[in-house]
Amino acid sequence: MRIPDPTSASLFGLPLWLVVAVGAVALFGAFQVYYWVGRRLGTALYRSRAGQRIGRERILRVEGLVRRWGAFAVYGCFWVPGLRHTLPWVAGALRVDYRWYVAASALGCLTWVPVTSFGLYSLIWAWLALAAHSPVTAAGVAVLVAACVAALVMWRRRRGNAPAGSAGMGS
User: Record's superkingdom (predicted)?
Assistant: First the structure.
């Protein structure tokens, strides 16, 4: 099985590069919506159902990041799962300068979307090539990855439920 190069690969009948470009534009649009929702609702957003699910302590930590790093935090949030969907509306609620916010979110979309898209594309095609060559090995890799993800989720949940001061001490 030959892995097609990204310029000739397609998804949904469209060239992969075009799907990635559309994804970047869509994410940029979503980030603008997040910002303006946060700006419009302000701290009332913290009391919303979404704010309650995230938790006041986490929101305050995100606030600290935004206050300290500003637009750099907006760019950095693209690379941290979970933060990517919280920080933009907190930035809006804190009224981060919109010009800097737009620049940082545009840069984030232009870097994060292609890196993750082509990275996932490469991983999927590599796994499919492995499956074509050795289905048993590919199944073993899939089971190993699933076990690692499950272990990570369990570890994070335990760490999140640990009493203050005991997180990370193996309890």
Answer: Bacteria
Residue 5 in any domain: the answer is: no
The residues facing 11 across adjacent strands are: 14
- pLDDT tens digits for 19-65? 889 999 999 999 999 999 989 988 787 788 877 887 878 888 888 88
With residue 41 as reference, give the H or E element that holds it.
helix 16-41
Buried b (16+ CB within 10 A) or exposed e, 78-94: beeeebbebbbbbbbbb
Distance between CA atoms of residues 168 and 150, nearest Å: 18
What three-state secondary structure class fits 15? strand
Cα-trace Rg, the chain = 20
In a domain, 2, yes or no: no
CA distance 114 to 129: 22
The answer to whether residue 87 is domain-embedded is yes
Do 104 and 32 contact (CB within 8 A), yes or no? no
**Measured between alpha carbons, how far is 126 from 139 in angstroms, rounded to an integer?**
13
pTM reported for the whole predicted model: 0.70
For the stretch 89-133, pLDDT in tens is 888 988 889 999 999 999 999 999 988 888 887 788 788 888 888
